[in-house]
Amino acid sequence: HTEFETYTLDDTDPATQRVKAALTELGLTPEMHPSGGGTDGNVFRLHDISAVVIGMADHNMHTTREYVTIPDMVDAAHLCETLLRRSANQ
After folding, report:
1. R_g of the chain computed on alpha carbons
2. Distance (Å, rounded) from C-alpha 15 to C-alpha 52?
3. Beta bridge partners of 59
4. CA 6, CA 36: separation in Å to the nearest integer?
5. Coil, helix or strand for 41?
6. Which own/partner contact pairs does 1-6 have at CB distance under 8 Å and 24+ positions apart?
7. Which fold has domain 14-88?
8. Residue 1: what pLDDT?
9. What is the model's pLDDT at position 88?
């Protein structure tokens, strides 16, 4: 069992701005929601590394019936590509 340090994102956070811009470029609506649990993002933030955890529209999370639809997986792949392309062009 690991304890994770919590953090809060806001619109001035650089990682948040990058993700929201990429989502908007793809015609998707950025939505920010609080989340429980722990991720690599908690560890990065603990070391002052800007990070955003991006949810993948999964269904029945953490069950034997967990799944992601193919269109949602394609959107996630396009988001990754857009973030990488934008980073390479900076």
Report:
1. 14
2. 6
3. 67
4. 9
5. helix
6. 2/38, 3/38, 4/37, 4/38, 4/39, 4/42, 4/43, 5/42, 5/45, 5/46, 6/42
7. DNA polymerase; domain 1 (1.10.150)
8. 53
9. 93
Q: What is the mean pLDDT of the chain?
A: 89
Note the pLDDT tens digit of each residue in 14-51. Answer: 889 999 999 999 999 998 887 777 888 888 988 999 88
Look at residues 37, 32, 35 and name the one whose alpha carbon lies nearest to residue 10: 32
- Residue 72 identity: D
* Distance from C-alpha of 50 to C-alpha of 45, rounded to nearest angstrom: 6
Dist CA 16 CA 1 (whole Å): 28
Query: Collapsing DSSP states into helix, strand and coil, what is residue 59?
Result: strand
- Average pLDDT on 59-71 reads 92
